[in-house]
Amino acid sequence: MQARLLLVFCVILAILIGLIARIVFITNQDKYKKGALELRSYVTSEIPGKRGDILDRNGNVLATGEIVYNLILDPKVVLNKNAYTEASVTALNRVYGFEEEKILTILNEKSQSNYVVLKKQLSYTEKCAFTDYVESLGKNSNNVKGIWFEEDYKRVYPYGCLASHVVGFTDSEGNGNYGIEQYYNDVLKGTNGRKYGYYDGSLNIVDTVKNPVDGNNIVSTIDANVQRTIEKYTEQFLKTYGAHNVGVIVMDADSGEIYGMQSNYSYDLNDPRDLSKIYSAETIAAMTDEEQVKALYDMWRNFCVSDAYEPGSIYKPFTVAAALEENSISKDSLWICDGVEDFPGDVHIHCSNKKGHGQISLAQSIMLSCNDALMQIAKTEGRDVFAKYQKKFGLGSLTGIDLPGETSGQCFALKDLNETEIATSSFGQGFTVTMVQMASAFCSLVNGGVYYEPHTVRKIQSADGTLIKKKNPISVGKTISEATGEYIKEALYMTVSQGTGTKANIKGYLIGGKTGTSQKLPREDEKYLVSFLGFIQSEDINAVIYVVVDECQDPEQAAKCAPAMVLFKQIAEEILPYLHIYPEGEISYKLRVIDEDSVTVNPLVTNFDPNDSEGAANVFSR
Amino acid sequence: MSFQDDNIQQNEDSIREEQTPQPAAAPPKRKRSYRAYDYGLLILTVFMVGLGLVFLYSTSSYTATQKFGNAAYFLKRQASFAIIGVIAMVVISGIDYRLYIEKLRFFSVRPIYGLYALCLLLQALVLVVGEDIYGAKRWIEIPKIGSFQPSEMTKICVIIFSAFICYTAPKKLNRFTGFLRVAAYMAPLILLVAKEDLSTGVVMTGTFVMICFITSRRWAYFIVSGLAGVGAMAAYIFLGESFRSSRISGWLDIDSPNAGFQIRRALYAISSGGLTGKGLGESSMKLGYVPESHNDMIFSIICEELGIVGAICIIFLFVLLIWRIYTVAYNAPDLFGSLICVGVMAHITIQVVMNIAVVTNSIPATGIALPFISYGGTSLVLLLCEIGMVLSVSYHIKNVD
After folding, report:
1. Which of A72, A417, B20, B121 is the right S-S partner for A383, CB 3.0 to 4.6 Å?
2. Do A207 and A312 share a structural domain?
3. Do A215 and A309 belong together in one domain?
4. Is residue B5 part of a domain?
């Protein structure tokens, strides 16, 4: 019996120790502590934490917070006395035009509440209108009770449309949508504070304030002047010719910093749901809700990072670079272009010049954008080298750009890369890329072979301006050697000065670049995406400008690169001074790497008429 | 060397043993016995009652002011019951506990039968004329004094009566039928109580089962019936009346808005106490936020005011109290005395555990008072009577010097 008694006593001890552990556990639960604070409060009000600003690289404010006021009604106080109710309801009606009946309904429905938000985001003047009215009542002003204003922040974009696809906007909850606002939401977001008033043990009211924490500011790599210029000409282009998509990226090849990025029409960040810039009022009125939502998503979509397409001939320098790098070909190699290349299964792939270029040198294959030569080069390279370099150039995988919604595009897997696939891939057909991928890979071609991660944010600062994080250029890997890079650069200079890219040439500047025309799927529709990928170097910056025009609506220009080159030229001419690159009068560039003779192998080059065969109309035929 | 040392040591030991005088051989001393009245338990009990009054004042003053305009309203009532209770305790401690089961000289009836009959009567009565408070009839209104809770007295009856039955035939408890016999005696009382107040029924059941368990020498049927009991309880709780199942869901998900707000607020109170609490009288959750803050929920307010440290101290005091009763039970002169102590110990323990478990949301919400501390006159007086019985048992322990 006594043993049992002892056992029982021990069990009791164990249970009580368990309960003590439970008490300790509960004491460490913050949610209950917070619950107690909230419960005891006679009123709690939020003190907003300011969302951080977004600045461009020169300190221009792209996004900021502005103090606004929320109109708060305290039904408990208002209903305290009939005189209060009457005076307060009249005041709300006079100043803000609320219907008296509506206010009375709210008062009755929420009679036990201390906090009803009547109106959000009043400006300072609107707030003052109320205080002025109350003062004008004189003696009776004491009867207006239970109405007060709570500070809040409203997101304001001083430049409106500028860089809309890079900056993004915020929803009513203060969370970022699209762009930097979304990608860096946690960095920008402030933490709201709270004010609790409660009764202490002696029934005195005590205030406890939990201070708000302001979010961090972001200094973007965007240059407002560059961006504005891009937007101006993109919009102009869309209005004159129209296109399915137009995208422009300006970036620095030596750091991966994005100076400007444009995707079709920009939208007003202060009113992101306004479609009127793209559609007429009648069209919008005729849209169903679903159509409107789709239209909004399309408008917000950043073509430069979220859409993949076949790059076309602008991929040629990459194929050549890979072949040179692996010594599959030599700089002095010559090819014969007969205008068409035959593949198993009765597939014939034409050159841009269907009659054939004849004998052609390596430099000329880029300058004239010769498909035939490129197909032969790629064949020499073989699938392993080809796939290896696609991977090295970051194709088929995300670039890691700090913007949401990036897509990776799709390259052929190594085992699928057969004769025909290598042939089409050599001139940029058959696999898909995004603009950011192409621009970043191109940067490595022209900067000596370093692949930098593209990014839109330079540094993060705390609200008081202290530097928190500086985003230095991140080198992801080495793509090609400097010697190869030098050769490609010269070939690209030659392309613009003598080859297919002459329309992009700007007087007084040494510009390199490559045109591209890709035939979209399904091929028989004969729809084209044309592009120009160019670069201009100075001591300060190694500027890469990439222009894509997807399905130009002008039938005459459909398969021609001219629109992309013209847009490139317009933009470059105006932004280069902002980038501290100034014209130098007559340019006399001496070839250093490329043999002078190899340029003159094919007389087509010296007598090249850019209007004649710059298009690559329907190279696929059976 | 060391080997030698060991031998020497052993030799010395054996010499010492031989020299030790054999106690049996010594001439017997004259036995001097004295009675071991447990003053420790008495002082501890009075201390706890005093402490209870302090907490009661702290937790009830706000409610008392709100309801009666007199901050000391509950304190005064409880204090007068405490005085009555302490007097009753001392008086009962002087009465030989064996008297309860001996035949009275004049009526030749054992008093325990009288108590059993009285309890049955009162429990039946309360169902008819009882005051309906919170949807349950538990109180009998007595003019001018207040309301009386017969179930508190029934608890004492359960203790003494089951101890009595076990004492008269302890060997029967070695069989399950013997246990059923005790249960059959207890069933009318407990069922009448449990109809209106399930948790008190649970306390009583636990108490008499504990007494049987200590008496018995068998394990198996306790384990089996214990498991069956738990299963039945679970079935009753989960499949029972609608209000009970909502209680269960509230217990399982205390953060849902449908859950009982009392327990959630008790948790708020406990967590806002922290390690050392806000200080005696500084609770803010007692200001109308935790209902019954001076009653079933008093422990949460103690946690808020005195923190984890204070809570551990209170629990430690209960452990001390239970330990004192345990010692008396252990040394009791006869099985009946021992079983009475076991019953009192079980009663106090179950109430303490259930009360703390409820306020910490460890078990579904139910109304059980914290012994000596919660507000309630009947409960306090009758608890003190129980301690009086334990003291009476301790008084009859004959220590042999």
Report:
1. A417
2. no
3. no
4. no
pLDDT over 70 at B401, yes or no = no
CATH of the domain at A609: 3.40.710.10
Which chain A residues are within 8 Å of B352, Cβ to Cβ? 16
Pick from B210, B265, B311: which is nearest to A23 by CB?
Answer: B311
Q: By residue range, what is the domain housing residue A499?
A: 258-265+304-621
Domain count, chain B: 1
Residue A247 inside a domain? The answer is: no
Residue A582 near chain B (CB below 8 Å): no
Q: How far is B370 from chain A (nearest CA, A)?
A: 14
Rounded to whole angstroms, the Cα distance separating A324 from A340 reads: 24
Q: Which chain B residues have a beta carbon less than 8 Å from that of A35? A: 264, 267-268
Mean pLDDT lowest among B10-24, B95-109, B192-206: B10-24
- What's the number of domains chain A is made of? 2
A15 within domain boundaries:
no
User: Which pLDDT band holds residue B244 (cuts at 50, 70, 90)?
Assistant: low
Could you tell me if residue B10 is inside a domain? Answer: no
Query: Distance between CA atoms of A565 and A503, rounded to whole angstroms?
Result: 6
Residue type, A93: N
CATH number, domain at A215? 3.90.1310.10
Residue B233 lies in a domain: yes
How confident is the model at residue A610, as a pLDDT? 57
Residue B270 resides in a domain: yes
| pLDDT one-digit tens code per residue, B157-184 | 999 999 999 999 888 888 888 888 999 9
The complex's ipTM works out to: 0.86
Instruction: Measure CB to CB from residue B272 to each of A16, A36, A200 and give the nearest one.
Output: A36
Domain boundary among A161, A195, A220: A220
Nearest Cα of chain B lies from the Cα of A522 at a distance, in angstroms, of: 56
Q: Residues in chain A with pLDDT < 50? A: 201-203, 613-615, 622
Residue A246 domain flag: no
What is the residue range of B248's domain? 36-400
Prediction pTM value: 0.60
Query: What's the per-residue H, E or C state across chain B?
Result: CHHHHHHHHHHHHHHHHHHCCCCCCCCCCCCCEEECCCHHHHHHHHHHHHHHHHHHHHHHHHHHHHHHCCCCHHHHHHHHHHHHHHHHHHHHHHCCHHHHHCCCCCCCCCHHHHHHHHHHHHHHHHHHHCEEECCEEEEEEECCCEEECHHHHHHHHHHHHHHHHHHHCHHHHHCHHHHHHHHHHHHHHHHHHHHHCHHHHHHHHHHHHHHHHHHCCCCHHHHHHHHHHHHHHHHHHHHCCHHHHHHHHHHHCCCCCCCCHHHHHHHHHHHHHCCCCCCCCCCCCCCCCCCCCCCCCHHHHHHHHHHHHHHHHHHHHHHHHHHHHHHHHHHCCCHHHHHHHHHHHHHHHHHHHHHHHHHCCCCCCCCCCCCCCCCCHHHHHHHHHHHHHHHHHHHCCEEEC
Yes or no, beta carbons of B318 and A16 under 8 Å apart: yes
